[in-house]
Write a structure and sequence with these properties.
- By secondary structure, the protein is mainly α.
- The protein contains 5 helices and no strands.
């Protein structure tokens, strides 16, 4: 396996791993708050479940970029391209926006979701406000996803 393809695989791995780590931390933080709320108010399960699920999207975005890298480089088809080091670095760089922003935003979105879950416990009618506040953090993950996609489509 040549150096170019190894660099591309590192880009794919980083996007999936770091996006997944951010989501895991975020969903866990929100889950702790949700479990506490549901132990006292089980009827709020549906409202807090939505908030807990929101930080999971960064892992999906990272996985999507990893798959796109693997498809573009031919790894999925079983016949990887013979990439130059420069091309491999391009794929590595394409994975970095969603890798790092996905990791950070997943963690911070989880903290926002946890606070929103506690707010919902005090006032169940405020769950839509909590979803909105939590979704605002998502904006940066979406921008990073778009940056990674644009970089991928710019690689020749």
């Amino acid at each position: 396996m040549n150096t170019g393809i190894v660099l591309a695989l590192v880009g794919a791995a980083l996007s999936a791993i770091l996006g997944g780590i951010g989501s895991a931390f975020g969903v866990q933080a929100a889950g702790v708050a949700a479990a506490g709320v549901c132990s006292e108010k089980p009827d709020l399960f549906g409202k807090v479940l939505v908030l807990q699920a929101l930080p999971g999207t960064q892992g999906i975005y990272g996985f999507l970029i990893a798959v796109l890298i693997l498809v573009q480089t031919g790894v999925i088809s079983g016949s990887p391209a013979d990439l130059t080091v420069a091309q491999g670095l391009s794929y590595l760089i394409a994975g970095l926006p969603i890798a790092f922003v996905g990791c950070g935003s997943g963690i911070y979105q989880g903290k926002t979701a946890a606070a929103s879950i506690l707010m919902t416990a005090k006032d169940p009618d405020s769950s839509a406000k909590g979803i909105t506040m939590t979704a605002l953090v998502e904006t940066y993950a979406i921008l990073a996803l778009l940056a990674s996609i644009l970089i991928l489509f710019g690689i020749r």
